[in-house]
Write a structure and sequence with these properties.
binds 5'-O-[(S)-butoxy(hydroxy)phosphoryl]adenosine; single chain; 22% strand; 21 helices; 653 residues; alpha/beta; Rossmann fold; GMP Synthetase, Chain A, domain 3
Length: 653
């Protein structure tokens, strides 16, 4: 990370919007100034006007922001609407035959769904969910591969006012059970398996395992048969998707809900304890989802938009399932992996479907960059007109490669900073307006009141690093942590006594007012753009019978950003040779079983005790140095037993 920050700090290249781009941009300089002016003069009116203009309401709201009970803010709270109606029905009169979804499967086969097709699929499923006893406010866990049916399921839930909670298909049965139980889900929607990289990835088995030892709230499991793999069905509980929708009408009257009605929960890692169920609203969330696709991605009717994120993450909610559809655009979904059948797959898809706007993560760019320029050059990428990135700071080298090799030196790069909790982009360029600097997410969007402050909450100007905070509530902000209002307040607002939403990142400003994100300030790792709590991984390790104690830190990694490095104390003697290597494997697999393969430590080291101060605090700073292979130069005199550092420095042989 430190190398990265240094190269970022020295970055002084500036990329101005081209005249050609400016001419066709959704947001021109003039419009941008108007938006900013309105936001600063009449904040509530700014968002209210946009909510009226961009969304369709069945009952108009009269209140914009309700801040009577901070930090529990409400937006448009006496209005009513339906997210699925906004994403589908309202486009039908003019765009029935326009493509909503282009889907390319792992094996290269393609399916297309028009807005009318999407409507029919979603309505049939919505009717099926109702027939299976799902009601407004019930929670439905979705555990699906990256296929259009995942979006149908989300939209069908939204349509009947049920609250969906997607669990990424890469999470284990244990992780799935925790989330099902925390949400109190009544139904699980899954598939027998998915296809990735030419192989089947089983899913239904994990649902069975999760429900064997818990998840008692679940009444029904709907199973989509995606592959030819066998699937065991449990009588009374399981029903195939096919049977559930058979005979269902393609007409469904969307259930209008209050703007504050939860649209979905999405679990994400924090620095302490179990994952948090981030609760999003219907009206406020949809507004920012819609606006950011219009402002930042400059989406237009003629575009083919591809966001590579899985629907299991927030990016797949806002920039696959809701935002582009709310705008009535064509979006692409891809089931597979970027390296199958070879590392040209992304570029082949961009070429074959004429993708115009492409959004992915720095880790994918860095991974594909390693294969050189020849692969992308084999494909016609001339339709691309805008590129985006998200998930972690992008190093200037990767930014330049993306811009030059993928974007022909013409496509602006939108480095978008946001989080599961913010619902949509917060700090990001407006492509026809903002000057770009490789490695900076540039400036807060109109209406987003972002600042950098020191420990006392004093605002910092350029140069100094500090806490990134948001002062004014915005429409798509997290409403609470599901079932835990107290944790919500503690996590995001307690630090500065409700004055700011505290993001959890550190950042600094340059003299042009650009934001540079430096990294997390808490014990959260960012592995390939995925957020992992060190404590979750530590708990997973400690749940293994041979482990007494564990500490996990991040180690800089040139593709993943960070990798997981674990320090383990066993409750038995440290084995030697092959036995030790076997134990390393056993522990890695154990973490995969407890959380999922993404959380597997790359390195595990053993010692007879963790380095602790005399008061018992684990000295993570030292562990980070060991992980990096740095010499320990700092003072270790406060350590209870300095000799254990030598133990942890020994690689496993
Ligand atoms: C954390 C949020 C937002 C969707 C994907 C991750 C980091 C995100 C950027 C960026 C630097 C970034 C932050 C943030 N992050 N985007 N453009 N530049 N850092 O969502 O799992 O909620 O993680 O990802 O640390 O807090 P998430």
């Amino acid at each position: 990370m430190s190398n990265n920050i240094e190269s970022v700090l020295q970055e002084d290249r500036v990329f101005k919007p081209t005249e050609a781009f400016k001419k066709q941009a959704n947001i021109t300089e003039e419009k941008y100034q108007q938006l900013k002016k309105k936001a600063s003069e009449d904040y509530e009116g700014f968002w209210s006007d946009l909510a009226k203009e961009k969304l369709s309401w069945s009952k108009d709201f009269t209140v914009g922001l309700d801040d009577s009970n901070p930090p529990f803010y409400k937006w448009f709270s006496d209005g009513e609407l339906n997210a699925s109606y906004n994403c589908i029905d309202r486009h039908l009169a003019e765009k029935e035959d326009k493509l909503a979804i282009i889907f390319e499967a792992d094996d290269g086969s393609v399916e297309q769904y028009t807005y009318k097709d999407l409507h029919d699929e979603v309505c049939r499923l919505a009717n099926a969910l109702t027939a299976q006893g799902v009601e407004k406010g019930d929670r439905v866990v979705i555990y699906m591969p990256m296929i259009p049916q995942a979006v149908f399921a989300m939209q069908a839930c939204a349509r009947i006012g049920a609250i969906h909670s997607i669990v990424f298909g890469g999470f284990s049965a244990e992780a799935l059970r925790d989330r099902i139980e925390d949400a109190g889900a009544k139904m699980v929607i899954t598939a027998n398996a998915g296809r990735r990289g030419g192989k089947s990835v089983p899913l239904k088995g994990a649902v069975d395992e999760a429900l064997e030892k818990g998840g008692d709230s679940v009444r029904k499991v709907i199973v989509y048969k995606r592959t030819d793999d066998d699937v065991k069905m449990k009588d009374d509980r399981d029903i195939s998707w096919h049977d559930a929708v058979a005979g269902m009408s393609n007409y469904h009257d969307a259930v209008m809900v209050n703007a504050e009605h939860p649209l979905f929960l999405l679990y994400t890692s924090g620095s302490t304890g179990k994952p948090k169920g981030i609760q999003h609203s219907t009206g406020g969330y949809l507004l920012n989802a819609h606006l950011t696709n219009e402002w930042v991605f400059d989406l237009k009717d003629s575009d083919v938009f591809w966001c590579t994120a899985d629907v299991g993450w927030i990016t797949g909610h806002t920039y696959v399932a809701y935002g582009p559809l709310s705008m009535g655009m064509t979006m692409l979904m891809f089931e597979g992996v970027p390296t199958y059948p070879d590392a040209g797959r992304f570029w082949q898809i961009c070429q074959d479907h004429g993708v115009t706007v492409f959004y992915t993560a720095p880790t994918a760019i860095r991974a594909l960059m390693k294969f050189g320029d020849d692969l992308p050059k084999q494909y016609d990428l001339s339709k691309l007109r805008l590129l985006g990135t998200v998930g972690e700071p992008i190093n200037p080298e990767a930014w330049m490669w993306y811009h030059e090799v993928i974007g022909r030196g013409e496509c602006p790069i939108m480095d978008t900073w946001w989080q599961t909790e913010t619902g949509a982009h917060m700090i990001a360029p407006i492509p026809g307006v903002t000057d770009l600097k490789p490695g900076s997410c540039t400036k807060p969007l109109p209406g987003i009141d972002a600042h950098i402050v020191d420990e006392e909450g004093k605002e910092l100007t350029h140069g100094e690093g500090g806490y990134l905070v948001i002062r004014k509530p915005w429409p798509s902000m997290v409403r609470t942590i599901w079932g835990d209002d107290e944790r919500f307040v503690d996590t995001y607002f307690a630090m500065f006594k409700n004055k700011y939403y505290v993001v959890g990142d550190s950042a600094h400003l340059d003299t042009d007012g650009n934001f540079w994100i430096m990294g997390r300030i808490d014990d959260v790792l960012n592995v390939s753009g995925h957020r992992l709590g060190t404590m979750e991984i530590e708990s997973a390790l400690v749940s293994h019978e041979k482990v007494a104690e564990a500490a996990v830190v991040g180690k800089p990694h040139d593709v993943k950003g960070e990798s997981v490095f674990a320090f383990v104390v066993l409750n038995q003697e440290i084995p030697e040779g092959d036995a030790r290597l076997a134990l390393v494997q056993e522990l890695r697999n154990h973490v995969a079983k407890e959380i999922g393969p993404i959380a597997k430590p790359d390195d595990i080291r053993f010692g007879s005790n963790l380095p602790k101060t005399r008061s018992g605090k684990i000295m993570r700073r030292l562990l980070r140095s060991i992980a990096k292979g740095e010499e320990i130069t700092s003072d270790t005199s406060t350590l209870e037993d300095p000799s254990i550092l030598d133990q942890f420095m020994q690689p496993n042989k």
